[in-house]
Each structure stands twice: as structure tokens, then as C-alpha cells.
Amino acid sequence: MKCNRETEQKSLIAVIIATGGVMIIEVIGGLISNSLALLSDAWHMLSDLTALLLCFTAGRVALKPPTKDKTYGYYRVEVLSALANGLMLGLVTIFIFYEAFNRLMHGVKVKSLEMLIIAIIGLIANLISAIILSKHSLNLNVKAAFLHVLGDAFSSIGVITGALIIFFTGWQFIDSIIGLTIGLIIIYGAGRMLYEVLHILLEGVPKHIDVAELKETLRSIDGVVDVHDIHVWSITSYIHYLSAHLTVKPYAIKDLNVTLNKVKRILKSKYGITHSTLQLEEEGYKEVGEIHTF
Fold first, then answer.
1. What is the pLDDT of residues 37-48, one digit of tens each?
2. Domain range spanning residue 27?
3. CA distances (Å), 289 to each of 17, 189, 230, 293, in order?
4. Could you tell me the pTM of the whole model?
5. CA nearest to 148, candidates 85, 88, 65
6. Residue 287 within any structural domain of the chain
């Protein structure tokens, strides 16, 4: 397992370096060729570079134990980084839209050959990165990075298509249209990211979990009569916690370890909840001053 984790981390480092290098090339190429599409694609790669760095950081942070004053560890650093990234991308998209409409109104000449060459370099780098990451597709964290790189490859194909159209037809406005399209892709991704980040920070229920269905599943366990005061939340996008009170039959209290193991096994296998705090209460028990039951 340790060997696999180290290999995955090395693969991520290689892809991060490649993505960062291509992003810099696209920025320089965009300025030289005067292509908004290339510059927009570079900003798109910046968003994915940040996502790759988050994937890498998550893998490293997972190995760092909690401390006495950080009992959850440092997983929320990933969430805060994603929040900053989403806000930054929103500002970048405003610039892309402004520049695109300005170019459509006044017209700007684009050097299509330089644009084409840089976009091809970007596509090749993205395809190589995708191949590297595809070897570790069983890891959900790396799989997310793979999808980001694949998205970059499709953006590069769009820029290449635009460069060819401009080269053969002279339609300069195509560059701005592609820039707008990539801007829409960026703002869509940033919006989804911000929604997920705020949902986690507000300690919302993970999107794959239906609390009503979860309660029914727990009630179906032998010895469990009812479930109340249940809370489900996430520390980060892939670590989920639960606390709940379970009303149980007297024999379930006697076989405490058996009952707890049954519940925890289902929580982990069916819902991906790796940490749970459960209070078992015998039928007839009433908690003094109890509030907020669900």
C-alpha cells in the first residue's frame, strides 16, 4: 500500500510539473500570438493545476496525524484552498468575458500559426499526463486528477480547431468565441467547486447520502428499534463522519460489540462513513433536556 501511494504521488508530481510548464508556455504563446483562446486555456489549466496540487496535498495530508489542538487533522486546508481557487477563477472569468467582448467589438488580429503550434504542444502534454494517471485510476483522488487533465485535453482540441479555422478562413472572431466558451467552462467548474466547498464548510450532508434512507437501513439491523439525533457531515470531500443515537432492544445492549460492529460495517461499506460516534439507548430511555432530534 505504501509503495502504491508513493508511486501515485510521483505520478502526480510529474503531471503537476507538465501542466505547470504547459500553462506557462500557453501564457507566453497567447501573448505572442495575441490569442485570447490560448490565454483562456492557460487560465483553465491554472484551475486544473490547482486541483492537481489539492490532490497531491490530500495524499500528503492523509499521512499526517491529528494533533492535540487539531483533532481532525489538516484536511480542511484542502477545502479552504479550493474556496480561494474558486473565487480567483471567478475573477479570471470576468476578465476573459470582458476581453472577448472587447475583441468582438473592435477586432484583433491573431497569429494563427503560433496559436496552433502552442495548442498542439499543450494537447500532447495533456495526453501524456492522462496516460500516466490512468495507471492509477482505482484511486478516487487520482481519478479526479485524471478527469481534470482530460478536460484540459479537450480544451486544447478546441483551441487547435479554432487556430485551423482562422488559418484557412481568416475569421479572427473565432478566437474570441473559443475564449468565451472556455470561460463558460471555467465559471461552471468554479461554481460547482464553490457550491461543494460551502456545503462542506456548512457541514451539510454528503450528496451521496439520503438521511431518511440511512435511518431506515439502520432500523433494519437486528436489535435496532429507532434512530434519532443523527448528524452526517464531511471534513473534506472524501472523509465523512456520523453521530447518532440508536434505540435498541435489551439484548443488543448486552451484545454491545456485536451491535456496534454491525452498524459500523454497514456505515462504511454502504455509505463510505469511516468515522462514527454512536450512543446506544435501551428502549424506554429518555434523555433529560434533549433537543434537536431528527
1. 888 888 878 877
2. 2-201
3. 57, 45, 17, 11
4. 0.73
5. 85
6. no
